[in-house]
Design goal:
Arc Repressor Mutant, subunit A; Rna Polymerase Sigma Factor, Chain: A; about 75% helix; mainly alpha
Protein backbone atom coordinates (compact mmCIF):
# COMPACT_ATOMS: atom_id res chain seq x y z
CA UNK A 1 0.00 0.00 0.00
CA UNK A 2 2.71 2.47 0.97
CA UNK A 3 4.56 1.78 -2.27
CA UNK A 4 1.41 2.40 -4.37
CA UNK A 5 0.71 5.69 -2.59
CA UNK A 6 4.37 6.61 -2.90
CA UNK A 7 4.30 6.04 -6.66
CA UNK A 8 1.29 8.34 -7.03
CA UNK A 9 2.91 11.00 -4.86
CA UNK A 10 6.22 10.64 -6.71
CA UNK A 11 4.47 11.35 -10.03
CA UNK A 12 2.71 14.35 -8.51
CA UNK A 13 6.00 15.59 -7.03
CA UNK A 14 7.77 15.29 -10.41
CA UNK A 15 5.01 17.36 -11.98
CA UNK A 16 5.66 20.14 -9.45
CA UNK A 17 3.24 19.41 -6.58
CA UNK A 18 4.96 20.63 -3.41
CA UNK A 19 2.31 18.96 -1.23
CA UNK A 20 3.34 15.60 -2.70
CA UNK A 21 6.99 16.43 -1.97
CA UNK A 22 6.06 17.17 1.66
CA UNK A 23 4.11 13.92 1.84
CA UNK A 24 7.09 11.91 0.57
CA UNK A 25 9.37 13.61 3.07
CA UNK A 26 7.01 13.05 6.01
CA UNK A 27 6.30 9.48 4.98
CA UNK A 28 9.96 8.43 4.73
CA UNK A 29 11.98 10.69 7.06
CA UNK A 30 11.60 8.46 10.15
CA UNK A 31 12.19 5.26 8.18
CA UNK A 32 15.33 6.80 6.70
CA UNK A 33 16.54 8.03 10.08
CA UNK A 34 16.15 4.57 11.61
CA UNK A 35 17.92 3.07 8.59
CA UNK A 36 20.78 5.58 8.88
CA UNK A 37 21.13 4.84 12.58
CA UNK A 38 21.98 1.26 11.65
CA UNK A 39 25.27 2.60 10.25
CA UNK A 40 26.22 5.43 12.60
CA UNK A 41 25.07 6.82 15.91
CA UNK A 42 25.73 10.41 14.77
CA UNK A 43 22.12 11.59 14.60
CA UNK A 44 23.03 15.03 13.30
CA UNK A 45 25.00 13.53 10.43
CA UNK A 46 22.06 11.28 9.56
CA UNK A 47 19.68 14.26 9.59
CA UNK A 48 22.04 16.26 7.38
CA UNK A 49 22.31 13.39 4.90
CA UNK A 50 18.53 12.97 4.78
CA UNK A 51 18.17 16.71 4.23
CA UNK A 52 20.76 16.58 1.45
CA UNK A 53 18.91 13.66 -0.12
CA UNK A 54 15.57 15.47 -0.21
CA UNK A 55 17.19 18.71 -1.37
CA UNK A 56 18.82 16.87 -4.28
CA UNK A 57 15.51 15.18 -5.11
CA UNK A 58 13.78 18.55 -5.20
CA UNK A 59 16.47 20.19 -7.34
CA UNK A 60 16.52 17.30 -9.81
CA UNK A 61 12.80 16.51 -9.86
CA UNK A 62 12.37 17.53 -13.52
CA UNK A 63 15.02 14.99 -14.54
CA UNK A 64 13.75 12.21 -12.27
CA UNK A 65 11.06 10.89 -14.60
CA UNK A 66 8.99 7.89 -13.63
CA UNK A 67 9.09 6.54 -10.08
CA UNK A 68 11.78 4.01 -9.25
CA UNK A 69 10.61 0.40 -9.02
CA UNK A 70 10.77 0.61 -5.21
CA UNK A 71 10.91 4.12 -3.76
CA UNK A 72 11.99 2.93 -0.30
CA UNK A 73 14.92 0.97 -1.76
CA UNK A 74 15.85 3.96 -3.93
CA UNK A 75 15.85 6.24 -0.88
CA UNK A 76 17.86 3.68 1.14
CA UNK A 77 20.54 3.50 -1.57
CA UNK A 78 20.65 7.28 -1.85
CA UNK A 79 20.93 7.76 1.91
CA UNK A 80 23.58 5.09 2.21
CA UNK A 81 25.62 6.81 -0.53
CA UNK A 82 25.22 10.17 1.22
CA UNK A 83 26.32 8.65 4.53
CA UNK A 84 29.37 6.98 2.99
CA UNK A 85 30.43 10.29 1.40
CA UNK A 86 29.80 12.23 4.61
CA UNK A 87 31.64 9.71 6.80
CA UNK A 88 34.63 9.70 4.45
CA UNK A 89 34.61 13.50 4.42
CA UNK A 90 34.37 13.55 8.21
CA UNK A 91 37.28 11.10 8.46
CA UNK A 92 39.52 13.62 6.70
CA UNK A 93 39.05 16.12 9.50
CA UNK A 94 38.68 13.98 12.60
CA UNK A 95 39.29 10.36 13.56
CA UNK A 96 36.40 8.20 12.40
CA UNK A 97 34.48 6.88 15.36
CA UNK A 98 31.95 4.89 13.37
CA UNK A 99 32.58 2.73 10.36
CA UNK A 100 29.82 2.43 7.78
CA UNK A 101 30.48 -1.33 7.77
CA UNK A 102 29.54 -1.80 11.42
CA UNK A 103 25.90 -2.48 10.66
CA UNK A 104 23.87 -2.48 13.88
CA UNK A 105 20.50 -4.04 14.58
CA UNK A 106 19.77 -2.65 18.03
CA UNK A 107 16.09 -1.77 18.45
CA UNK A 108 15.44 1.93 18.96
CA UNK A 109 13.93 3.29 22.18
CA UNK A 110 10.74 4.14 20.30
CA UNK A 111 10.38 0.55 19.10
CA UNK A 112 10.87 -0.76 22.64
CA UNK A 113 8.08 1.41 24.04
CA UNK A 114 5.66 0.41 21.30
CA UNK A 115 6.15 -3.32 21.75
CA UNK A 116 4.37 -5.23 24.48
CA UNK A 117 6.00 -7.88 26.68
CA UNK A 118 5.59 -10.79 24.24
CA UNK A 119 6.99 -8.69 21.42
CA UNK A 120 9.99 -7.87 23.61
CA UNK A 121 10.62 -11.54 24.24
CA UNK A 122 10.40 -12.23 20.51
CA UNK A 123 12.72 -9.30 19.78
CA UNK A 124 15.23 -10.58 22.31
CA UNK A 125 15.28 -13.95 20.58
CA UNK A 126 15.66 -12.30 17.17
CA UNK A 127 18.45 -10.08 18.49
CA UNK A 128 20.21 -13.12 19.98
CA UNK A 129 19.93 -14.91 16.65
CA UNK A 130 21.17 -11.93 14.64
CA UNK A 131 24.01 -11.20 17.04
CA UNK A 132 25.31 -14.67 16.30
CA UNK A 133 25.69 -13.76 12.61
CA UNK A 134 28.61 -12.00 10.95
CA UNK A 135 27.96 -8.41 9.83
CA UNK A 136 27.11 -9.10 6.16
CA UNK A 137 24.77 -11.97 7.07
CA UNK A 138 23.08 -9.77 9.64
CA UNK A 139 22.69 -7.02 7.05
CA UNK A 140 21.12 -9.25 4.38
CA UNK A 141 18.67 -10.74 6.90
CA UNK A 142 17.69 -7.19 7.94
CA UNK A 143 17.02 -6.10 4.35
CA UNK A 144 15.18 -9.28 3.33
CA UNK A 145 13.02 -10.01 6.36
CA UNK A 146 12.73 -6.76 8.30
CA UNK A 147 12.65 -4.24 5.44
CA UNK A 148 11.06 -6.83 3.10
CA UNK A 149 13.19 -5.91 0.10
CA UNK A 150 13.51 -8.31 -2.80
CA UNK A 151 16.85 -9.81 -3.78
CA UNK A 152 17.40 -7.39 -6.70
CA UNK A 153 17.05 -4.40 -4.35
CA UNK A 154 19.34 -6.05 -1.80
CA UNK A 155 21.95 -6.59 -4.53
CA UNK A 156 21.90 -2.87 -5.24
CA UNK A 157 22.12 -1.90 -1.58
CA UNK A 158 24.87 -4.33 -0.70
CA UNK A 159 26.67 -4.06 -4.05
CA UNK A 160 26.46 -7.80 -4.69
CA UNK A 161 25.63 -9.79 -7.78
CA UNK A 162 22.43 -11.83 -7.62
CA UNK A 163 24.11 -15.21 -7.05
CA UNK A 164 26.32 -13.85 -4.26
CA UNK A 165 23.26 -12.37 -2.54
CA UNK A 166 21.41 -15.68 -2.81
CA UNK A 167 24.40 -17.56 -1.41
CA UNK A 168 24.82 -15.09 1.45
CA UNK A 169 21.13 -15.32 2.33
CA UNK A 170 21.22 -19.14 2.26
CA UNK A 171 24.36 -19.26 4.43
CA UNK A 172 22.69 -16.88 6.88
CA UNK A 173 19.56 -19.01 7.13
CA UNK A 174 21.63 -22.19 7.44
CA UNK A 175 23.66 -20.72 10.30
CA UNK A 176 20.46 -19.60 12.08
CA UNK A 177 19.01 -23.11 11.72
CA UNK A 178 22.23 -24.68 13.00
CA UNK A 179 22.37 -22.44 16.04
CA UNK A 180 18.72 -22.11 17.00
CA UNK A 181 16.51 -24.73 15.36
CA UNK A 182 15.14 -27.34 17.75
CA UNK A 183 16.56 -30.83 17.32
CA UNK A 184 14.86 -32.82 14.62
CA UNK A 185 14.30 -29.97 12.15
Amino acid sequence: MLEDASNVMWKRFISGDNTAYSWLYNEYVQILFRYGSRFTSDGELIKDCIQDLFTALYKNRKRSGSPPANIKAYLFVSLRNNLVRALHQKARYEPMEHEIHSFQLEPTVEEQFIDNESDRNRQNLIKKILDALPTRQKEIIYYRYIQELDLEEICTLMQLNYQSAQNLLQRSKKKIRELFAPDGF
